[in-house]
Amino acid sequence: MELKYKRILLKLSGESLMGDQPYGISPVMLQYYARQIKGAVDAGVQVAIVIGGGNIYRGLQAAESGIERVQGDYMGMMATVINGMALQSALEKIDVYTRLVTAIEMREIAEPYIRRKAHSHLKKGRVVIFSAGTGSPYFTTDSAAALRANEIKADVLLKGTRVDGIYTADPEKDPNAKKYDHVSFQKVLDLGLNVMDTTAFTMCQENDMPIIVFDINNENNLLAILKGEHIGTVVEKV
What we know:
Blueprint: E1 7-12, H1 27-42, E2 46-51, H2 62-65, H3 69-93, E3 98-102, E4 111-112, H4 115-123, E5 127-131, H5 141-151, E6 156-161, E7 166-167, E8 179-180, E9 182-184, H6 185-191, H7 198-206, E10 211-215, H8 221-226, E11 233-236
Parallel strand pairs: 1-2, 1-6, 2-5, 3-4, 3-5, 6-10, 9-11
Antiparallel strand pairs: 7-8, 10-11
């Protein structure tokens, strides 16, 4: 199979694991994502993943609950480790070699993040799941995805969402919203389009890391993107 992208960073939201549940982890969604990732690995793609923790806990909820922001952010990082462990288990059940890597040391359940070691795992065909964000408060998992994508020299950062790209407005609220097929980093900033948080987006812009925003709930999309088909919205320097 001819591939356009050989090494990718796939960003998934924690909410994507909920399925139809109000919170937590849906076994159906775990298996769904595991199958898609296996398809990419079987095609010969080196896959790294960053997954959020919003299905369990959001650091930004801390103020509402009376928990200090920094403490809340660390709690959110722990939630991403739980999701990473669940995804690792789902992948290994279908014979996908996986390494769970964490930015906060917890040797009993995950490897500490070492860039060169992550490179080595990817070259050997193992899926690498980066958890615990950047390891520091005040940074989102979007920022962690942008940072890791650049550190491992990924060909592209793929952001799987529940909409099929970037629109002029929220398509779930505005029926007149129009979709962009291609858009430049600068235009996204000028128009204030909601793609990723500013820190993450700027990191990708400065390092010329293309971003593709696509509908992860169409199970054919990931493999189609890897083969070079135009799916979703591509953000790059123009």
